[in-house]
Amino acid sequence: MSDTTLTAEALEELAAFLQEVPLFSALKPDDLMVLAALARRDEFHAGDILFRQSESDDRLSIIFAGVVQLVHIDPDGAARDAGRRERGAMLGESTLLLGEPHDVTAHAETDVVVIVFEREPFLKLRAEQPRLWGRLSPSEKVTRRLRAPRFGWQAPDESVIIFTREHWWGLVRRSFIPLLTLGAAIFLVEVVIETVPALV
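The structure assignment produced for this chain is given below.
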């Protein structure tokens, strides 16, 4: 693998390319130039491994040229073909935005050029470029995870899957019949306790 520093001309070419990527499709030209300045260009030879399943390299790779083969290793150790990706495909969206490990291994099927964004400088955009950050278009799956609340008891690698809020009246309404039944049962028990000694 080799990495290349981008020239001014290459930055403009990259900005135009990034607009074709779903995550960045809603960004304005100035936003795209900001992103292009954060990017790095990496090159791989056919047969190289871009990343391995379960690795947490905190980066997003976007295929600029070439073909990448994806392989998923099942829990029983069997390798499963997860498809091929070509120009414009994102590899590691959840790794970049959520800090999650890769769920596949990526092999360069041909010579491959990827545009790489590292997680730490990318996340600084949230504070430094809030308008740019707000125009990003993550996948639906990642969007749900980004909007999920965080709690103090969660480990760093844990995420909320389902989180709901309910109005207090809904809780009262759903609890009414169970509470009424419980009250009636307690009343009957007290009646029986008072009646049994009298019968004896």
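Interim note for the steering committee: The radius of gyration is 27 Å. The mean pLDDT is 85.
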